[in-house]
Amino acid sequence: MKTDSQLKEDVSMELEWEPSVNASKVGVAVKDGVVTLTGHLDTFIEKHAIERAVERVAGVQAIAVELDVKLEPGHTRSDTEIAAAAESALKWDSGVPVEKVQVMVEKGWVTLKGEVDWDFQRKNAAKAVRSLVGVVGVSNGIALKAADAPANVANRIRDALTRHAQREANRIEVTVQGSVVTLKGEVDSLAERTTAVNAAWAAPGISVVVNEMTVRP
Q1: If you average pLDDT over every residue of the chain, what do you get?
Q2: CA-CA to 2 of 20 to 30 Å: which in 101, 115, 212, 217?
Q3: How many CA atoms lie within 13 Å of 72's alpha carbon, on the beta-carbon side?
Q4: How does pLDDT run across 187-196, given as a tens digit for each residue?
């Protein structure tokens, strides 16, 4: 088990290793395995990259993100310009169903609404807009269309966990009630937990994934 000081060092080194992140702008504090990130960033896409980098570090129990985006003068755009760019980005993304996602922008913050069939389509929509110039944040309010889950969906999710995360698969309990999947158990990192959640979202007919997994200290 890592001490908080060891974990802070590992997180700091991972941020320095990530080329899309300016680590000098990020403050890192750790208490009982919970990492708190502070600072002011130039773009929202960098904030996303920082979160993903910290998730990769073994021993991180949770992340408190207190980072805010303060755009440089050259990166500012009007809400109208951002909305137009977002709509164009969504139309040009083949992983997002055409005309099923609506965009609203307020003070640089993009909110996505609509209904799609799969979670990957919802994630693709957020990915398409988060890197646009002028965006300071993204709220993904896209819903999944209701569908009937196959009778064997729990077994199919367990098989997917085995393929994607062999080491953790035997420690994860999968229960399905209707279209709701609940995952319980211990994993070694936040990244491994995300892998398990993504495997569950890929199952047909699933509209909710309840994540009750914990990260091993």
Answers
A1: 91
A2: 212
A3: 4
A4: 888 888 888 8
| CB proximity list for 97: less than 8 A, separation 6 or greater | 116, 117, 121
Residue 168 has a pLDDT of: 65
**What does the alpha-carbon distance between residue 147 and residue 128 come to, in Å, rounded to a whole number?**
26
Residue range 20-35, pLDDT digits in tens: 999 999 999 999 999 9
Are 44 and 136 in contact by the 8 Å Cβ rule? The answer is: yes
- Is the CB of residue 200 less than 8 Å from the CB of residue 183? yes
d(C-alpha 89, C-alpha 73), whole Å: 23
- Residue 217, pLDDT > 80, answer no
- CATH architecture classification, 77-144: 2-Layer Sandwich (3.30)
Per-residue pLDDT tens for 145-181? 877 778 888 888 888 888 875 566 778 899 998 889 9
What is the per-residue DSSP string for 34-96? EEEEEEEES-HHHHHHHHHHHHTSTT--EEEEEEEE---GGG---HHHHHHHHHHHHHT-TTS
CATH class of 4-69: alpha beta
Residue 138 CB: number of other CB atoms within 10 A?
A: 21
Overall size of the chain counted in residues: 217
